[in-house]
Amino acid sequence: MSRIAILAAAAASLTTLAACEPTTGGGGPGSNVPTGPYVLVGIADETVPQRNVGLTIESDGSVSGQAPCNHYAAAQTAEPPGFKLGEIKTSGAGCGGNAGALESRYFAALRQADGITYTGGVLKITGPTYLTFEPGYRKEK
């Protein structure tokens, strides 16, 4: 393969990876939390290996995403580093088993959350139960 073809392939790969990265400086007024997509990797001290829960932070600080069974959205009403969601609206799909248990824990943690930080590429939403996210998209079922 020629050097030009290798460089072109590398540039295309970097562009694709950059599309998954959050955008710096969003997350609402006074925030250093980047906007964009994140994937849940932990609840409290437990790892979430399925990578099937996504959260997107919009430029106004609101959030939306896909839990194991339902799409959801909510307004964020506190100024960062505070974090407080209004009503979490879901698509209302039924959810049972392990997926239902994960979704219930996730929404409970979001409802009780009181802080948000972004350090070293890791997003943490804190409260009685903390949530840990990495940049990227949730894995499709």
Description of the molecule:
The protein is an alpha+beta fold and 141 residues long. Helices cover 24% and strands 28% of the residues. A hairpin with a 2-residue loop joins strand 7 and strand 8. The chain has 2 helices and 9 strands, in the order H-E-E-E-E-E-E-H-E-E-E. It is globular. Strands 1, 2, 3, 4, 5, 6, 7, 8 and 9 form a 9-stranded antiparallel beta sheet that branches. The termini are far apart.
Strand-pairing-aware structural class = alpha+beta
Global shape? globular
Poorly predicted regions? 5-21, 23-27
Number of strands: 9
The major beta sheet can be summarized as:
9 strands, antiparallel
- List the quaternary state of the chains: single chain
Q: What is the end-to-end distance?
A: 36 Å
| Rg result | 16 Å
Describe this structure in a few short sentences.
The protein contains two helices and nine strands; from the N terminus they run αββββββαβββ. With 141 residues, it is of the alpha+beta class.
Topology (SSEs and partners):
Layout: H1 3-20, E1 36-43, E2 46-47, E3 54-57, E4 63-66, E5 71-74, E6 89-90, H2 97-112, E7 115-119, E8 122-126, E9 131-135
Any key phrases for this structure?
nine-stranded antiparallel beta sheet, alpha+beta, 28% strand, 141 residues, 24% helix
